[in-house]
Amino acid sequence: MDEENKVVADPRETFGKGAARKIRAAGKIPAVLYGHGTDPQHLTLPGHQVGLLIRKANAVLDLQIAGKSQIALVKDVQKDPVHQVIEHIDLIVIRRGEKVQVEVPVHLEGESYPGTIADLDAKTLLLEVEATRIPENIVVSIEGLEDGSQIHATEVELPAGATLVSDPETLVVLVHVPQKVDLGEEAAEAAAEEAAEAEAPVAEEAAAESAE
What class does CATH assign to 100-176? Predict the structure, then answer.
């Protein structure tokens, strides 16, 4: 484990929305650590440090709780939808050498054949990996791939020590020539309809005035 992943976690005794607000106001994050049959532990984490660490998917933290080390996988991060402030983190107890199943982001590298585009159909793949060696992403090369090329999960080169859990036939990448859509006639028809709708009320008003 990297030194930067060492996080001093304080046990907390206060609960509820009010207590959580006070924790966040102090620049910290409320969290719960659970797993392996242990009782859930309610913790307080340093906000800035943890906020940087969890930018990476499947972050693993080396929690320092009352002087003891406990490795934990970030399982869920709850954020305020408007302000994007981290409201709560769920952590899972893991042990060195243990294998876990995690969704790992797929990253495309290179450029497909000129005139084509590459659609990333599967943004993540489910892998089984050692808990302390979770890859940041899976790199898939699309360099020079031509129209109609497909890459399925079984063809993706996985990081060392990783095993594919996702369906091997999962479509990961599809390379194709984008369809050309002629919007000329459609746009002209839409403009004509809008103009007709705009003129209708004017004609009605004129008819009403002449009737008076």
Answer: mainly beta
